[in-house]
Structures are given as C-alpha cells and as structure tokens.
C-alpha cells in the first residue's frame, strides 16, 4: 500500500472570536441545565436523566475550555507583541546605512 502524500499545502487556520464563542457555548450549556432542573422527575421517570447531566458536563467542560482559549489568546498576543518589538528594533525593511 502506497503512502498518501498531500498534493497541495494546507490552508491557514481561520481565526475568529474564539473566546467569545466558547464562552457563549458554555453559557448555553449551563442555561440548558438550569432549564431542565425543574423537570428532573420527568426525565427520571422516562430513563432520560442523561439529558440533564450531559448539559451539566458540557457546562463544566466549557469552563475548562474558557480557561484554555483565554490562555491561548494571551499567548498569541504576547507573541505578536514580541514580533512587533523585534521588527521595530531592526528598523524599516530594506533600509541601508550610508
């Protein structure tokens, strides 16, 4: 069996409002959990408690996700600032001393 080789280069990843997206999703999971709590007995009678606990797990895992993406965002900003500072120290591109 031959090894698969890519025919073209992979595109750059899309960057967007990652922190806001993960935070919004976490809030949604917790809201769904809270909305289902009054119906806990109804879910229990039908063997569907996993719906309630899935929403709770999604909310708590979302908290871990928020922590992760905030750290990632801060690291990306630090890297960009360091790259800008290094660029500023080198001076304008193409400039030569006479």
| Proportion in β-strands | under 5%
What overall form do the CA principal axes indicate?
elongated
Number of helices: 3
**What are the secondary-structure elements, in order, as H or E?**
HHH
Through-space gap between termini? 61 Å
Helix percentage: 55-70%
* Category by helix and strand content: mainly alpha
Radius of gyration from the CA trace?
A: 24 Å
Q: pLDDT average, as an integer? A: 91
Total E-strand runs: 0
Biggest sheet, in brief? none
Poorly predicted regions: none
Describe this structure in words.
The protein is elongated, with a radius of gyration of 24 Å. The chain has helices at 18-36, 40-45, 49-90. By secondary structure, the protein is mainly α. Helices cover 68% and strands 0% of the residues. It contains 3 helices and no strands.
Topology:
Blueprint: H1 18-36, H2 40-45, H3 49-90
Helix pairs in contact: 1-3
Features:
68% helix, 98 residues, 3 helices, mainly alpha
In short:
The chain has helices at 18-36, 40-45, 49-90.
